[in-house]
């Protein structure tokens, strides 16, 4: 069992973690990134990416993450193929983390970039048709359904926002909800009901995603949650919007979180309540959840980490003098 020591320990290898690494490495913090269970994060399970600045042509999510990782390594980041299973931040800096491999990681600062994952329904066809008509992100994929017929599944703020967003591309959006009332904020509901491009299907659960002859989504199978009657709905695209789950299990009881499990930070900063521990990307952001915003907060975490260490080193030097 080895111990790996660094100025900057980063957990998570999506856009937030890798951006923190790029900035941290260039600031001389010789970061270690522990990649986690899904190296590269959520973008590795999407296909076409058209909204990440700097690329005129459509790029692929997995390719973008490979490039980000290569850039991080090029400037001096050490990537570790491991998953953190335990963490000790109780004594302040340095912070200790234990990997699934049994290795120990020690960092003067800790950057948490463990991300979040869209929740899925877990019904037949959903996984197989992911990227072929089934998506969990309208902002990412809505553009590919312009002029087509789409459905959104869910009844919270995300679902309503996604349905409204999709009307930029489609005149035929159906919101499918398992109950007969939405849980989203009233202002969003008002906008939804006022929008003639959106229709609603109440008390319907999607029980199956079915492909057409070309292998992409053709229709949804629905079951009425009150009567049990079954029906179908033909759509080109279906957006599952039933919430996201942040990957914060490791930090329960160790760092403050909101009721949905997102890490709480000082507003407008990546600072958690523990000095030297920073959170960036989807693990602390349930509102925007974009690769570009995650990368932005990753950069902020690295800049604040650098300031934290500079301040600490200065204070130590003063004490010694
Ligand atoms: P929510 O948990 O608020 O809503 C999830 C929705 O999905 C609910 O309507 C729920 O139904 C439905 N659902 C859950 N599981 C299933 C299932 N297995 N089958 C069918 N339907 C299911 O998640 P959101 O992502 O909408 O929001 C998360 C948080 O982020 C909230 O606090 C929200 O307010 C916030 N948010 C804020 C935004 C803003 O302020 N602009 C934008 C987006 C999110 P049911 O109602 O029956 O439980």
Question: Can you characterise this structure?
Answer:
The chain is α/β, with parallel strands linked by helices and 321 residues long. The protein folds into 2 domains: 3-117 and 244-320, FAD/NAD(P)-binding domain; 120-240, FAD/NAD(P)-binding domain. Helices cover 25% and strands 27% of the residues. It is built from 6 helices and 19 strands. The protein has helices at 15-26, 61-74, 138-141, 157-166, 186-194, 291-320; strands at 3-11, 32-34, 48-49, 59-60, 78-80, 84-88, 95-99, 104-112, 116-118, 134-135, 149-153, 172-176, 198-201, 204-211, 217-224, 230-234, 237-240, 244-246, 277-279. Strands 1, 2, 5, 6, 7, 8 and 19 form a 7-stranded mixed β-sheet that branches. It starts with a strand and ends with a helix. NADPH dihydro-nicotinamide-adenine-dinucleotide phosphate binds at residues 121, 154-159, 161, 178-179, 183, 242-244, 260, 286-287.
Secondary structure: helix percent:
10-25%
What is the H/E string?
EHEEEHEEEEEEHEHEHEEEEEEEH
Reported for the largest beta sheet, the result is: 7 strands, mixed
Indicate the radius of gyration in whole angstroms: 22 Å
Task: Tell the overall outline.
Answer: elongated
Question: CATH fold name of the largest domain, please?
Answer: FAD/NAD(P)-binding domain
CATH architecture of the largest domain: 3-Layer(bba) Sandwich
Spans of at least 5 consecutive residues with low confidence = none
- Provide the structure class: alpha/beta
Counting copies of identical and different chains, the oligomeric state is single chain
CATH class division of the largest domain: Alpha Beta
Q: Compute the average pLDDT.
A: 95
Taken as a percent bin, the fraction of beta residues is 25-35%
Question: Can you count the beta strands?
Answer: 19
Bound molecules: NADPH dihydro-nicotinamide-adenine-dinucleotide phosphate
When the domains are counted, the total is 2
Helical segment count: 6
What's the CATH H-level homologous superfamily of the largest domain? FAD/NAD(P)-binding domain
Q: How far apart are the first and last residues' alpha carbons, in Å?
A: 38 Å
């Amino acid at each position: 069992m080895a111990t790996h020591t660094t100025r900057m320990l980063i957990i998570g290898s999506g856009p937030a973690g890798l951006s923190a690494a790029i900035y941290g490495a260039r600031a001389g913090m010789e970061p270690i990134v522990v990649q986690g269970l899904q190296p590269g994060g959520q973008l590795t399970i999407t296909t076409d990416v058209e909204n990440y600045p700097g690329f005129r042509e459509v790029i692929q999510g997995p390719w973008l993450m490979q490039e980000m990782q290569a850039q991080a390594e090029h400037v001096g980041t050490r990537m570790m193929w491991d998953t953190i299973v335990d963490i000790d931040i109780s004594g302040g800096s340095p912070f200790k983390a234990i990997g699934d491999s049994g290795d120990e990681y020690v960092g003067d600062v800790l950057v948490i970039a463990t991300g979040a994952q869209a929740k899925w329904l877990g019904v037949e066809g959903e996984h197989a048709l992911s990227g072929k008509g089934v998506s969990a992100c309208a902002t990412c994929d809505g553009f590919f359904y312009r002029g087509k017929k789409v459905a959104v599944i869910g009844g919270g703020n995300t679902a309503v926002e996604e349905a409204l967003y999709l009307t930029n591309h489609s005149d035929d959006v159906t919101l499918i909800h398992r109950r007969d009332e939405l849980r989203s904020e009233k202002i969003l509901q008002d906008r939804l009901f006022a929008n003639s491009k959106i229709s609603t299907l109440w008390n319907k659960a999607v029980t199956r995603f079915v492909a057409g002859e070309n292998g992409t989504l053709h229709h949804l199978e629905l079951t009425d949650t009150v009567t049990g009657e079954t029906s179908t709905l033909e759509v080109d695209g279906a957006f599952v919007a039933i919430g996201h789950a942040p990957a914060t299990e490791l930090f329960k009881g160790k760092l403050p979180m909101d009721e949905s499990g997102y890490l709480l930070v000082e507003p407008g900063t990546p600072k958690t309540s523990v000095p030297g521990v920073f959170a960036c990307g989807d693990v602390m952001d349930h509102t925007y959840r974009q690769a570009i915003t995650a990368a932005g907060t990753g950069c902020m975490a690295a800049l604040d980490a650098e300031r934290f260490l500079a301040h600490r080193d200065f204070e130590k030097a003063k004490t010694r003098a």
